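Reviewer 2 asked us to include a model.

Predict the structure of this chain.
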Amino acid sequence: MSELNCNASKRVKKVISDKNAQLVCVNEIPKYSKKQFKEVYKGYDFLENLFTIRTYIQKKHNVPYEFLELMLRLMGLNLFTMVDFFDTPRTFTYKKWNSIKESGYINLVMDDKDVMKRVYCLNKKGQNIVIDFYECLSGEKRIPESPEENPFEDDSKKVDFDRKKMELIKKLNKLPVPDHKKHLFRG
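Predicted model (structure tokens):
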């Protein structure tokens, strides 16, 4: 079998190659280059609005902070086993495998008699949350301001904290996306 180029752990690659299965990658990871390194570090403001965007995503999708962090990690792995999950630092709430498995965000990709060799991935619902997070963070997607799409604009649940967040979101939406962030989502 040819070398796997996807961002999968060694355990996942071993399990897949042992099964004589083939892994098809949607996005090939480009090789590191000095130019890419410089482009990434060109602007130090990439995470400046992390707090606002993170809380918007949490409220919109009704996911706790710790679980969002875990989904970001699992999405980065693409495919993972229970061993990969246990190697990931997580809070007490998500220490147990069943709490993640029963969350509704994980799909079984490849079954095995040995539960530690089963391969999983985030399902479409989980992937969409992570993609939504990154699109808002990079500036590719503007955060909606309507009450139907933004929980911060819901008058029945609004508190001072939410009002301040909404004011910041409105300011963010008016700003142009900096050129050094555009390379993150434009080819």
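The beta strands are 106-110, 119-122. The longest helix spans residues 124-138. We have added this to the supplementary material.
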